[in-house]
Amino acid sequence: MCGIVGVYAYGKPGRVTPDMITQMRDTMGHRGPDGADLWISDDARIGFGHRRLSFIDLSNLAKQPMPNEDGRVWITFNGEIYNHARYRTPLEQAGHRFRTDHSDTEILVHGYEEWGLEGLLERISGDYAFGIYDADQDALFLARDRIGVKPLYFAVFDGEFVFGSEIKALLEHPKAERDIDPFAMVHYLSFLTTPAPMTMFKGIYKVPAGCWLKVEADGRISMQRHFDAAPGKGIDPSETKGLSNQALEDFYVGGIKQRLHDAVERRMIADVPIGVFLSGGIDSSANVALMSQFSDKPINTFTVGFKDFTGLNELDYANIAAKRFNTNHHEVLIDENDMIGYLDSLIHHQDEPLADWVCIPLYFVSKLASDNGIKGVQVGEGSDEQFCGYASYMGYLQLYHKYWSPFRNYLPRPLQRAAAMAAVGASNLNPRLPVYADIIDRASRDREHFWTGAMVFWNTSKDRLMRYDALGSADHHLPMIEAGVLDPSYLVPDSYNVIQSFLEPFDAAHGGQDALTRMIHNEFRLRLPELLLMRVDKISMSVSLEARVPFLDHELVDFSFDIPEEWKTKNGTAKYLLKKAVEGLIPHELIYRKKMGFGAPMADWLRGSFGERVERELLGSSLMERGFFNLSYIQNLFAHHRSKKADASLQIWTLYNLSSWYDYWIGGKQAQRGH
Q1: What is the pLDDT of residues 339-369, one digit of tens each?
Q2: Angle in degrees, CA 172, 173, 178, rounded to 5
Q3: Which has fewest Cβ within 10 Å: 130, 392, 457, 575?
Q4: Is 26 exposed, middle or buried (0-12, 13-18, 19+ CB in 10 A)?
Q5: pLDDT digits (tens, 9 = 90+) for 285-334
Q6: Considering only CA atoms, which of 282, 364, 295 is closest in space to residue 328?
Q7: Three-class secondary structure assignment of 118-186
Q8: Are the CB atoms for 530 and 195 separated by under 8 Å?
C-alpha cells in the first residue's frame, strides 16, 4: 500500500510544478516511508506523486510513478494485485517489455495498454486505487477496487483536476479552500460516514467502490461502474439443480472453504513480514489457521484489550487460537487515558469524520504490529456482512418477517399513518423510543426497514436535531451532478434517498431477492466501503501498516451473494454456513462461542470526566455557530446519557467527531496542534 497524488491541468500548460506535487505527496509520509518520487509531463500539464510502502519487488526499478516503454502511459498506484504473476508471460508474449523482476504495478501499465481500462479491471484481482495518464488520448483515468478497500479522493480547483489517497493531500493544493459540505453532514449524522461520492469537505469527492472515472482534455468528467456486489456471478444454477438439502449444504460449505483458502493464500504474497489481528472469533481465527498452512514460520498475531473494562476483552479466546496454531502472539492493553491522548491524532488521520470508536483500539493494535516490524496484517472485515454474522441483522430479519410484512400488508394505510404519528409523538417524551418510532414511520411511508447496520440519528430524531433551513445552497455540486457522478437526490435532507439510490437499480436488475440479500447489497454500497474499510485503511496506514481483507476477495463475494437467506441463517443460526466451513479448521469452542464484537467502553467513558470535557468542547465548537443544530436537543442527549435514561453514547460520539473535525480542519486548530 502507498500514497498517491496527481494534478491534471487540462489544456493549461505550465501549471503543475515539482513543489506542488511534493507538498501534496509528503502530507502522506506515513503511507509510504520506503521512498518517494514524482513525474511531471514535459508541458507541465500533468504530474503524479508517490509515497512507497514496499511489499512486492523491493527494488528501485519498481518505484513509482511508473511509465510504459515509451513513456506514453504513466501510473501512480496504491494497493496490491494478487494475481499479477499470471499475466506477466501473456503480456511478454504480446510484445510488452518489462523492466522489473516481479512488480505488480508494471502489470497494470502493460495490461492497460493491451486490454484497455475495462479489460484490465475485469482481469485483475486485488485491492487498489490508481491514476493512469494516457498521452495518446490526453486523458486521465482513476479506478477504485471492486469492494472499496483502498480510498481515492478527487476535486476540481479552478480548471485543475486533483486526486489523492487522502484528503489532506488535496488540501495542500494552492487553490484548495476548506469548508464543510452541510449536505454531506446530513447523511453522516445517519450513517456515521459520508456516502460516496460525497465527503465532508465542500468540493472534494471520493470515487465510489467499484467505479472508474475519466477526465478528458477539455475537463469533461464521466464515471462508470465496473463492479457491483450482486447475485448472478458466483454460482451457475446448473451446479445446484436437483441437489438434496444435504448435498446443497455440502456444495455451499465446500465453495466457501475453497474460496477462503485461496483468498488467504493470495494475500500471503509479499516480500516483507505479514501478521494478523486476532480476536479469537471465527474470522480472525480462520485467518490464522489458513495462514499457518502457507508459512513455515510462526504467524505473528496481535490483540488489544482494556485495562479498565476487562469485560470487553477477548484475550482468553485469542490466546486459545494463538496456542492452537503456535503463533508469535502479542498483546496491548489500553485505558481511558490512552484514548484521550490519541484523540488529536485520530482527527488528523481520519481526514473526514468516521464516527466509529473502534478506531481507538484499532490504532493501538496497529501500532503494536508496526512496532514489532510487521508491514502488513490480514483482517476479518466483510465476513459478518456476507454471512449474516451480526445479531442486529438477525433482529432486522425477525422484524421484517414477523412484524414489518404483516403491518405493511394487512393494516390499512390510514391506520399505519396514525400509528406512526402516535409513535413519533411518544418518542418525544421517552428517549428510548425514537428507534421504534422511526421503524413504524418507515413502514407507514413504504420505506425500507433496513438502511444500514450502523444508524446513528434516525430520521425522526435528526428532524429534531437539525435546522435544515441553515444548510444553504447546493449549487457547488452542480458540475458533479451534470457529469453523472453525484445523484441529485443526495442534496435533499432525507437520508432515505441514499438507500433508495442503491436499491432501485438493484431491484430492477435483480428482482425478487430475499430480505437478507438486499440488506447485504446496501452494506456493500455504503457501510462496508465507506466506514469499516476506511477506518481500517486510515488507522493502519497512519502507522505504515497495510491491512489485507481475504473475506472480501471478489470470488468469495460473488459466491456468497448467490447463497439465499434461508441457508445463511439456517436453524435461526447467524453465520450458519461459515461456521460449518471452519469446523475442523479452528477449535470448536471458538466457532460456537457468543459473539462479542470489536468495541470500546465509550458509554462508560462518556459518563465520567471525559463526558464533561466532550460536552464542553462540543457545545463550544465553532461549528455550533453555523446554526445547523438545536443545542437544547444536544444538551438533552448528555443529560439522558448521564442519568442512564438512554444510551446516547453513539449520538454523542458522532457529534463530537464532527465538531472536533470542524475545529481542526476548518476552524484553524490544525496549525496550532503542529500537524
Answers
A1: 999 999 999 999 999 999 999 999 999 999 9
A2: 70
A3: 392
A4: middle
A5: 999 999 999 988 999 999 999 998 888 788 999 999 999 999 999 999 99
A6: 295
A7: HHHHHHCCEEEEEEEEECCCCEEEEEECCCCCCCCEEEEECCEEEEECCHHHHHCCCCCCCCECHHHHH
A8: yes
